[in-house]
Amino acid sequence: MRTTRAICAAAFFTLHVAACAGSDPKVAFDVVADVSLPGGNSRFDYESLDADRHLLFIAHLGASEVLAFDTASRKVVARIKDVSRVHGVLVVPELHRVYASATGTDEVVAIDEDTFTIVARAPGGRYPDGMAYAPEAHKLYVSDETGKTETVIDVGSQRRVATIALGGEVGNTQYDAGSKHIFVNVQSRNDLVEIDPADDRIVRRIPLPGADGNHGLLIDATRRRAFIACEDNDKLLVLDLDTRKVESSFDVGHAPDVLSEDVARGQVYVAGESGIVSIFGIRDGRVAKTKEGFVGTNAHVVSVDAVRGAAYFPLKDGDAGPVLRIVALESESPEPSR
Question: What pLDDT digit, counting tens, does each position of 205-230 carry?
């Protein structure tokens, strides 16, 4: 394991981008540090944070392993191997479990968060990807991207208990604590499916006008909004979860993928394959883009840690190998430009 390297003496530099039309192309991000990661220069995928235990779990797809990163000491504390072509990763703190979708073996792998050991495996469909946990039902919901279904796993028995046909290629899956429902992007149909975990029934299909390849998904249960990243037309859609209607649409960097939220500050981060990160502020029920800039090549994954005031971007091509780029969060949500 290699040690942390400061980006520069002031732990800060300015990143230059071709940002959105009408905005300043020179956007300053407070980049705190690059922490070297093991496993070689290959693609990373999802991250999941247990803020109370200051553990960030990172899917290193190309290395077929899950990394456990201590956000307090800024060190990798475990490498969980034999998770073939890992895409999704989700920590469920109340269960002391981490779930990882291994597309190489089409499995969902359960990892003990205390010992960092694999404790169970379950069938995950034909291409398991994103995951969400419905706590009332004690079920894990897994996007089967090319299988066009949602795989449902009982976390007690670690067995598949349902397969829900969605009728198209599946994007990310999220749980809404407000409705206690699961929402799933069906990216080849440009709609959002709502599932009731009580009986694994599709409640409704929500059309997404303006969507093309709606893959990334984030649910803000408190503010009753769903944020939907469309990778084929570089758009972010904002859906009102009360009316089930798209209320606004924004341009973002090319091929947006993973989203994360700073709930306290009312900020949503959208990371894209182009390396451009867009920040959206939520104020008085209104959403607007507040900042956009280049963070790093293939910076398509982000996890926001409001406790430490940092956003984490795993990059496969740092100066001396793969790194976890740590960026300070915006101190406040600036007044959106009109």
Answer: 999 999 999 999 999 999 999 999 99
DSSP 281-322: EEETTEEEEEEEEE-STT----EEETTTTEEEEEEEEETTEE
DSSP annotation of 2: P
Tokens of 118: 């694999």
- Residue 201: Cβ-neighbour burial (10 angstroms; 0-12, 13-18, 19+): exposed
pLDDT in tens, 45-67: 999 999 999 999 999 999 999 99
Residue of 219, 210, 273 lying closest to 247 (CA atoms): 210
Q: Which residues, including other chains, have CB under 8 Å from residue 125's CB and lie 6 or more apart?
A: 106, 142, 144, 147, 149, 151, 163
Measured torsion, CA atoms of residues 269, 309, 7, 14, in degrees rounded to the nearest 10: 50
Distance CA 184, CA 170 (A): 7
